């Protein structure tokens, strides 16, 4: 593994980098403006960029620093998998953002999906003072939707935009290339900033079986195409009803069991799955994350993951409900 030749020492006092992220060669431009903590490690910056741009973290990635993205002398920062496969570079979780960026106009390159080759350029616009209560990452602007995954890269995406008759299985029927929401992006970034607890209760896995069964059910319903949310951001009535019936919760709850905002067990189930980064909201859908897809067909690992991530089994899996419990708004 190569030794890093990082350009800058770590700052003694953290700052905020205002950074513009552009998807290279996109026309019209697809971009995001982010406020990033200088203390972010590169492996923490990766999920931030995935969330901000709208990718699904389904492929390999790397960071580069050099004169340009094609610079053969550019320093490369890799995932552990790539280093294990013989790539030359530095492990990304050993490098902090302020070791690579310092001043306005400094650049960092981010490459996602080596097949489609999605290239991103991050440019520092401003270096701002940082208070103690700011989130590690915040989106303050942007334009246009992220392209669909596996559509052939930026040139394949341009062809899809120019010829509406091109049929492609990876493009959702309701895909809107002009769609982008700062609010939705920040909701996802907030989830990233609140990781689950790491400790696992001793010999407590079996206590999480009911929760694992319910979470597994919801992951199955999301499947490969996701669940379309209502205009208010809730699960559709048919899914709420199915959850209450198939998980045998209906007899324990008073109400019609058709609306998520008045059916707290289903709301709690979805909130937990999102908090543990098994599901994510994107473009009005609830989608499997990479972790969720991996655990979807592995109930034993899912149960162990819940036990390691939660201090106690969630209330909604207990069967003991307070009928006046109810959420105010979806997250």
TrEMBL record:
Superkingdom of this protein's organism: Bacteria
Ranges where the Plasmid pRiA4b Orf3-like domain occurs: 17-181
UniProt cross-references to SUPFAM superfamilies, sorted A to Z: MM3350-like
Classification via Gene3D superfamilies: MM3350-like (3.10.290.30)
A Pfam family assignment: PRiA4_ORF3
PANTHER family referenced in this protein's UniProt entry, alphabetically: LEXA REPRESSOR-RELATED, TNPR PROTEIN
Protein name per the record: Plasmid pRiA4b ORF-3 family protein
């Amino acid at each position: 593994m190569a030794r890093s030749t990082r350009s800058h020492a770590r700052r003694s006092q953290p700052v905020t980098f205002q950074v513009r992220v552009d998807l290279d060669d996109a026309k019209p431009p697809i971009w995001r403006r982010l406020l990033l903590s200088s203390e972010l490690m590169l492996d923490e910056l990766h999920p931030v960029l995935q969330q901000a741009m709208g990718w699904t973290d389904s492929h390999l990635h790397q960071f580069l620093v050099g004169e340009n993205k094609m610079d053969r002398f550019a320093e490369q920062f890799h995932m552990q998998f790539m280093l294990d496969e013989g790539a030359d570079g530095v492990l990304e979780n050993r490098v902090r953002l302020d070791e690579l960026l310092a001043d306005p106009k400094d650049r960092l390159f981010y490459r996602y999906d080596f097949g489609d080759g999605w290239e991103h350029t991050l440019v520092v616009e401003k270096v701002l003072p940082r208070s103690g209560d700011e989130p590690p990452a915040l989106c303050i602007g942007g334009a246009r939707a992220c392209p669909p995954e596996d559509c052939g890269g930026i040139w394949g995406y341009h062809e899809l935009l120019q010829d509406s008759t091109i049929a492609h299985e990876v493009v959702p029927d309701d895909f809107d290339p002009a769609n982008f929401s700062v609010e939705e992006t920040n909701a996802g970034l907030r989830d990233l900033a609140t990781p689950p607890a790491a400790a696992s209760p001793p010999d407590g896995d079996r206590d999480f079986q009911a929760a694992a069964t319910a979470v597994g059910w919801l992951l199955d319903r999301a499947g490969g195409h996701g669940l379309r949310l209502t205009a208010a951001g809730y699960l559709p009535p048919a899914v709420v009803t199915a959850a209450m019936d198939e998980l045998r919760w209906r007899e324990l709850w008073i109400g019609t069991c058709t609306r998520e905002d008045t059916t707290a067990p289903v709301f709690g189930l979805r909130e937990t799955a999102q908090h543990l980064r098994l599901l994510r909201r994107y473009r009005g859908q609830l989608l499997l994350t990479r972790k969720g897809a991996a655990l979807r067909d592995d109930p034993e690992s899912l149960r162990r993951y819940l036990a390691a991530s939660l201090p106690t089994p969630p209330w909604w899996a207990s069967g003991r409900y307070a009928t006046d419990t109810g959420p105010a708004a979806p997250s």
